[in-house]
């Protein structure tokens, strides 16, 4: 392994170990920091809500793992992505063994995610920054939720998402690598793969590239380990990748119109400079640190790993343009999420420590740096307060289960119906009411457009299903009694949930929402 760069003389404490108050004081500081970090992340994401966004898939898939008889109508939709995941295979049994309800289990999983992310960011900060205030500034910057351009991913989430948990483990592996714990880092990446395969795979590629560049692991070990991982992955997935080795037709691509960021031809022109600028920033700041003698060999190797991710994206782009399904299903554009975090770490160093914070060796920390961190923390708190309390005053800031809304009242009634009961609701009901019917009631739904169209990337059959059901339904707001009964007979639908006044038997009512029986 090449020798590390000569150690840089520090002008301030190297880590949080220098915090006043001894071991107890340091522990109290770390715990307080964790609580503040979790609170700022949650507020900046608009609050914590059970059932939000992609949980429209992850709640049903875990429920089905615990109760396989659920979702007889929707099983093909759920299986389209579930066959490629390992998350529910271990999370479902874990929830059952714990005896916890799913809302509580998801809340605990979110806490674990945020704590893992918090520790990972501190680890990255200790490798990049020279002072405790630099690390504190990096933590504050990481709480400010932002969207990675044209990837469908956010830097942090206010609800539990396996993708975010896998990302936190991947970032922990990156921190371990920067501190020389290379083999442990590779093992942690393996955990990320079990949580979310694509995020784990991109971190594996980043760290394998970095280890090859720095010489931390022999190339023979990397090649052998990669070959074993590939064989195990192919064995585990079996023939599940068959749908990826086809070219998407026009009808399939039309269903993905709502998720245009998944397909490179759907990218606007601005997507290219915005994402490439992230890479450019990482390279430029890293070179600047190298000239100052601050960048270690492993840090430079990580930048090389980022460039390897960029190469993987560029190689995938023409395949995506050609419409090959696998290039879309791998969501290669999310490599910019990993690179973005490296960029934020370097930006924190640039903002809080270089080159204008030159201080006397006998001073513990500079006042300008401390003031800047406090100001940005207050801005993050102000933004989080606005997003959490002002932007959506109709939503609670912290919601563990189903709130006492009219939609949730109907969902509780729906959950009491026999397994296999099939519902028809507004195709965009998840966006309209805050949680999908499938997730809230554990029952089948004719169409949940936002999530079903996303799952369609994994199967042409699901894309056809979504397209045909949209066409058969037409304008939901103009649905007539005759049309509703016809759909009920054709698709074995038991109840229609709508705010329209129709001449059909009423099975349940909550405010303007009415569940009509379709006579099956």
Can you put this structure into words, describing what you see?
The protein is mainly α. The chain folds into two domains: 20-49 and 100-390, no CATH class; 406-517, no CATH class. It is built from 22 helices and seven strands. The strands form two sheets. Strands 4-3-5-7-6 form a five-stranded mixed β-sheet, covered by helices on one side. Strands 1-2 form a two-stranded parallel sheet. A hairpin with a 2-residue loop joins strand 6 and strand 7 (513-517). The N and C termini lie far apart (71 Å).
- Percentage of residues in DSSP E strands: under 5%
> Unreliable stretches, pLDDT < 50, 5 or more residues?
1-18
Strand order of the largest sheet: 4-3-5-7-6
Separation, N- and C-terminal Cα atoms:
71 Å
Largest sheet: 5 strands, mixed
| Rounded average pLDDT | 83
Number of helices: 22
How many extended strands? 7
Form type:
globular
Query: What is the helical fraction, as a range of percent?
Result: 55-70%
| Order of helix and strand elements from N to C terminus | HEHHHHHHHHHHHHHHHEHEHHEHHHEEE
Tags for this model:
disordered N terminus; single chain; 4% strand; globular; 5-stranded mixed β-sheet; 2 domains; mainly alpha; 60% helix; 520 residues; two-stranded parallel sheet
